[in-house]
């Protein structure tokens, strides 16, 4: 084992399933102590238990990333349990059913923006004082190819993911000289429950583009986790404010 995160303390939101679960487990495999956070506490507990059973260190907490009080409580609990936070992975996210503007209610807009954009903002704002006090840290945000191009989601989702990339760049610019690195991952289609939702709800042209990527397949969550690991450890020490596309070639055709 390379133990690229040996001794690090990592918080992962959306850790109960999909990419968040894969990232939490990958971080633990590389030596990190992990706080597995999710709105679904039972799912977070399952992830933490699987890490512990594999010989790692983890615990679980419930968090609603769109609620500031919940976020602050989760960060405080993580600091207490872990003894600090070196890595934050903002992975929690939801889809909008590919709704265009005229089919996007204010309630749907607020829900998507609340989880997918406000969530990373609140988590980042809550963790920064601890990271700055400790001399630095690493933040990995989950964006999407919808942060670059249209048709990766609906109006709310695409707007939120564009915002995540902007938040990533601005936070990196504001805090880079103080030891904070911030980068984003921009996946295409990944084989998760959310992908099934895309295939169930997406327009025919969208589904066709997903299925016709040059890679010829969807990504596995573990492949996204490998990129998250790179951005979280010192191998990426000169990477600041980047948005890494990992889409099997979706955006080049």
Question: What would you note in describing this structure?
Answer:
There is one protein chain. By secondary structure, the chain is an alpha/beta fold. 47% of the residues lie in helices and 15% in strands. It contains eight helices and seven strands, in the order βαβαβαβαβαβαααβ. The protein has a seven-stranded parallel β-sheet, with helices on both faces. Helix 1 packs parallel to helix 2 (41-53), helix 1 packs across helix 8 (221-232) and helix 3 (68-82) packs parallel to helix 4 (106-133). The longest helix is centred in the middle third of the chain and has 28 residues, at 106-133. The termini are far apart. 51% of the residues are buried. The model has no long low-confidence stretch (mean pLDDT 94). It comes from Cnuibacter physcomitrellae. GO terms for molecular function: oxidoreductase activity.
Task: Describe how the helices and strands are arranged.
Elements: E1 9-12, H1 18-29, E2 33-38, H2 41-53, E3 57-62, H3 68-82, E4 87-90, H4 106-133, E5 137-142, H5 155-175, E6 180-187, H6 193-201, H7 204-211, H8 221-232, E7 243-246
Parallel strand pairs: 1-2, 1-4, 2-3, 4-5, 5-6, 6-7
GO molecular function, one term: oxidoreductase activity
Keywords: Oxidoreductase, Plasmid
InterPro entries: NAD(P)-bd_dom_sf, Sc_DH/Rdtase_CS, SDR_fam
